[in-house]
Design goal:
Largest sheet of chain A: 7 strands, mixed
Largest interface: A-B, 27 and 29 residues
Number of strands of chain A: 11
Number of strands of chain B: 11
Oligomer: heterodimer
Strand content of chain B: over 45%
Largest sheet of chain B: 6 strands, mixed
Chain lengths: 116, 114
């Protein structure tokens, strides 16, 4: 299994509070991704990184920011959490663009975030 | 705008029979497709992929078919086993986005009954 650790695994917080989720990898992969999974929507890309300090927006980036100061860590921050951000968040990594045969994205086990 | 759609939220089949999961896409720039499987409380795991230069790719019990003119792909599982019960996501990427991004469908819950 790819070495991906997401923390925390579960979090309950209140509307308006800041929240930071951490993704840590031990594979030295270049690409890292944050997704959210919601019923009826599947997995939607929030932000991704293609190198240290290199990030780009995904399809649902509003309300989220990311930082990648070193290869192994990719942080997702909700500056002021809202109830619509209640979701399961997945981090993924890949060594090369995931369209290369035999080089898919590998996912962490997710963080369940509830915002009351 | 859902560019990758899995129109069946759920599918139930008997053990030993064939499971067919379908996926449609609208973006004609997509040229690489993947299927992922997800068990509860775990992250998705890669299953099989196909490039648009092919129309079929097989790996053991799993075969993916691509019909580019219809913008449709399907995943066949033969024979189906109870351990195949999971949510299946199809995903697509386009070279124009440097291939770094995947667009996922909504997922189909497959239940294989013993």
């Amino acid at each position: 299994d790819a070495g991906i650790t997401q923390s925390p695994r579960h979090k309950v917080t209140e509307t308006g509070t800041p929240v930071t989720l951490r993704c840590h990898q031990t594979e030295n992969h270049r690409y890292m991704y944050w997704y959210r999974q919601d019923p009826g929507h599947g997995l939607r890309l929030i932000h991704y990184s293609y190198g240290v300090k290199d990030t780009d927006k995904g399809e649902v980036s509003d309300g989220y920011s990311v930082s990648r100061s070193k290869t192994e860590d990719f942080l997702l921050t909700l500056e002021s959490a809202t109830s619509s951000q209640t979701s399961v968040y997945f981090c993924a990594i890949s060594e090369v663009p995931p369209r290369e045969p035999g080089q898919p994205q590998h996912f962490g086990d997710g963080t369940r975030l509830s915002i009351l | 705008d859902q560019q990758v759609k899995q129109n069946s939220p759920s599918l139930s089949v008997q053990e030993g029979r064939i499971s067919i999961l379908n996926c449609d896409y609208t973006n004609s720039m997509f040229d690489y497709f993947l299927w992922y499987k997800k068990y509860p409380a775990e992250g998705p795991t890669f299953l099989i992929s196909i490039s648009s230069i092919k129309d079929k790719n097989e790996d053991g019990r799993f075969t993916v078919f691509l019909n580019k003119s219809a913008k449709h792909l399907s995943l066949h599982i033969v024979p189906s086993q109870p351990g195949d019960s999971a949510v299946y996501f199809c995903a697509a990427s386009a070279r124009e986005t440097s291939g770094s991004r995947l667009t996922f469908g909504e997922g189909t819950q497959l239940t294989v009954n013993p």
